[in-house]
Design goal:
208 residues; alpha+beta; GMP Synthetase, Chain A, domain 3; Ribosomal Protein S8, Chain: A, domain 1; 3 domains; 3-stranded antiparallel sheet; 9 strands
Length: 208
């Protein structure tokens, strides 16, 4: 729920100052709704009436992501810290701590679930959001990417040598993309996917 506050004040400027102190945020982090305009009254003071202003804190998507993941960790009794960085339309969520590794799961399945749920949480707040979320734990993503690239090149060599098509284990779209990209310029093999998620797999075949 968005934080909100109603204040009565003689001027909007005065109300804004009080709201910023109350919320402990910057001016660009609030939205202002004038509910009732102030009136000066007779001769500028008799019967004057203060204005009524309603303020809302702008929920930043990066803050929403951080709060959502922290709540997940708390409910799972996992002692870890959540660090957030934002690059253009990508929110990076990095989970760090002695218990964080338990959230990776087999081949990153639990980590992918956390990432998916965090994306849903952002979409629920702002259906027009174009932000993407990447959740990582102690640099697992880059380590997994390096491992997949090595594996892809190893299988490509095997297919080149034997000229026999190789079907890999089921992988998520992220992992399939890594292998596709790593072999897209290979001189001897082609790659394509078959099946439907979650049972979609990547196939490496020899170029005839």
């Amino acid at each position: 729920m968005r934080r909100s506050l109603e204040l009565r004040s003689k001027t909007q400027e005065e109300a804004v100052k009080r709201a910023l102190i109350e919320f402990n945020v910057k001016k660009e982090d609030i939205e202002i709704e004038v509910v009732e305009k102030p009136s000066k009254g007779f001769l500028g003071f008799l019967g004057s009436k203060e204005g009524l202003y309603r303020f809302y804190v702008v929920e930043k998507e990066s803050d929403i992501a951080k709060e959502f993941v922290e709540t997940l960790l708390k409910n799972a009794n996992v002692d870890a810290t959540v660090n957030i960085t934002q690059e253009n339309n990508l929110i990076k969520v990095d989970i760090v701590g002695k218990d964080a590794g338990s959230l990776i799961g087999r081949r990153g399945e639990t980590l992918d679930s956390i990432q998916f749920l965090t994306g849903l949480a952002l979409n629920k707040i702002n259906k027009d959001s174009h932000m993407r979320v990447l959740v990582d734990i102690e640099n697992y993503r880059s380590k997994r990417e390096e491992s997949l690239i090595r594996y892809a090149r190893k299988v490509a060599k095997e297919v080149t040598r034997t000229k026999k098509t190789k079907k890999l284990d089921y992988m998520n779209p992220y992992e399939r993309r890594i292998i596709h990209s790593s072999l897209q310029n290979d001189e001897y093999v082609n790659t394509y996917s078959e099946g439907t998620d979650p049972y979609r797999r990547l196939v490496i075949e020899y170029k005839r």
